[in-house]
């Protein structure tokens, strides 16, 4: 099959981890006989430096013409402590999500047997955890208008808005995912306080009739924040609005003990985007020490979700598990064993796929 992949390495460790994913994707292409072409674009702080725009039109054209996007990370400390900066790297990410129509962010949490002891939670609570968030990504308070300040600058406001249509399309993805998994869907909201949440709950209640095989639970977001660390095995598929999803998926990312290992997918239209959930980790940039596995696993998600190639995805997951079992890992998880360089891990994985 012919596959056109847009590469957006972005900032910080982004370029290094994307380079390893590219090695692995090329190896998979060679092994399974796929014709893969890559086109690279600028996004984030590096795009601001080069063009003044965190998501330049040229980058959007590359993404829109591709079959899938592999994205590294964005962000630079020089913007974090300057709330007055007019142009920010994060604006690029939000505009990219919006322009590509990526309304669903899929963030799984699962455990790796060889790393589960690194979880901050007790082993019996995490061993075997396997749930997935479907976070709404192009609506809510992230995009709602009006937003801003009053004339004196002494009051600020953001607006949370959801249309029924936005809720339906996200919820349907959650229901369909639940049907293929353990058939439990949790709708996370704050319906005891917020009008938007009441619309979420009402809409999901209506849809539930169409999915009689899925059990639906409704939980307030504060309770989920608590239960996620108390009893994470209670969850299967969770659906939620943009801001709640942003917060809860960061919480979820540390449960399995391997934040540097969790991949994600953003779906919604023809072009799908795949990215590690960790950030740009500027302290490690350029040092060849960052863990590339979350990006490599994001490439596995790409084969599965963008190209429906389960075998290829499995081949990648298998070599990642092998690298963990054999200790071919970067310093963050080396635990006193040999710490491999980012590039060495990428070379090893690619060689194993071909070997
Ligand atoms: C994420 C990030 C972004 C978000 C930031 C960088 C704008 O935290 O992808 O979760 O809030 O969506
Ligand atoms: Mg976030």
From TrEMBL:
One GO MF annotation is: 3-isopropylmalate dehydrogenase activity
Q: Which cofactor does it need?
A: Mn(2+); Mg(2+)
Source domain of life is: Bacteria
Q: Which SUPFAM superfamilies match?
A: Isocitrate/Isopropylmalate dehydrogenase-like
Q: Which residues bind substrate?
A: 97, 107, 135, 222
Q: How is the cofactor bound?
A: Binds 1 Mg(2+) or Mn(2+) ion per subunit.
Site (Important for catalysis) location in chain? 142, 190
Q: Where's it found, cell-wise?
A: Cytoplasm
Question: What keywords is this UniProt entry annotated with?
Answer: Amino-acid biosynthesis, Branched-chain amino acid biosynthesis, Cytoplasm, Leucine biosynthesis, Magnesium, Manganese, Metal-binding, NAD, Oxidoreductase
**SMART domains reported in the protein's UniProt record:** Iso_dh
Residues reported to bind Mg(2+): 222, 246, 250
What coarse category fits the chief subcellular location reported for this protein? Answer: cytoplasm
Please report which protein family the annotation says this sequence is part of: Belongs to the isocitrate and isopropylmalate dehydrogenases family. LeuB type 1 subfamily.
Quote the subunit structure annotation: Homodimer.
Q: Do you know which NCBIfam families this protein is assigned to?
A: leuB
Q: What is this protein called?
A: 3-isopropylmalate dehydrogenase
Give the originating organism: Algoriphagus limi
Q: What is the lineage of its organism?
A: Bacteria, Pseudomonadati, Bacteroidota, Cytophagia, Cytophagales
């Amino acid at each position: 099959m012919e596959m056109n992949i847009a590469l957006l390495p972005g900032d910080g460790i982004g370029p290094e981890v994307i380079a390893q994913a590219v090695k692995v994707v090329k190896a998979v292409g060679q092994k399974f006989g796929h014709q893969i072409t890559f086109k690279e674009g600028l996004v984030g702080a590096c795009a601001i430096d080069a063009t003044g725009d965190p998501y330049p039109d040229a980058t959007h054209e590359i993404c829109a013409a591709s079959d899938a996007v592999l994205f590294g990370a964005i962000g630079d400390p020089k913007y974090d402590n300057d709330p007055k900066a007019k142009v920010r790297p994060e604006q690029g990410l939000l505009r990219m999500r919006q322009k590509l129509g990526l309304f669903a962010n899929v963030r799984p949490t699962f455990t790796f047997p060889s790393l589960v002891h690194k979880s901050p939670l007790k082993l019996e609570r995490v061993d075997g955890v396997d749930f997935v968030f479907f976070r709404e990504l192009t609506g809510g308070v992230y995009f709602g208008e009006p937003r801003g300040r009053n004339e004196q600058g002494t009051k600020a406001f953001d607006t949370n808005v959801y249309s029924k249509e936005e809720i339906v399309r996200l919820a349907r993805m959650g229901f369909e995912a639940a049907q293929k998994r353990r058939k439990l869907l949790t709708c996370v909201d704050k319906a005891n306080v917020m009008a938007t949440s009441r619309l979420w709950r009402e809409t999901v209640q209506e849809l539930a009739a169409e999915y009689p095989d899925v059990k639906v639970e409704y939980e307030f977001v504060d309770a989920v924040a608590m239960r996620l660390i108390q009893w994470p095995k209670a969850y299967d598929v969770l659906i939620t609005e943009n801001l709640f999803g942003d917060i809860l998926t960061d919480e979820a990312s540390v449960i399995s003990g391997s934040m540097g290992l969790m991949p994600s997918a953003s779906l919604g239209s023809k072009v799908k985007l795949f990215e590690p959930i960790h950030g740009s980790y500027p302290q490690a940039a350029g040092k060849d020490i960052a863990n590339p596995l979350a990006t490599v696993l994001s490439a596995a998600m790409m084969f599965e979700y963008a190209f429906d190639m389960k075998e290829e995805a499995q081949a990648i997951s298998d070599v990642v598990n092998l690298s963990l079992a054999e200790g071919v890992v970067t310093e963050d998880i080396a635990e006193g064993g040999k710490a491999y360089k980012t590039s060495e891990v990428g070379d090893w994985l690619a060689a194993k796929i071909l070997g």
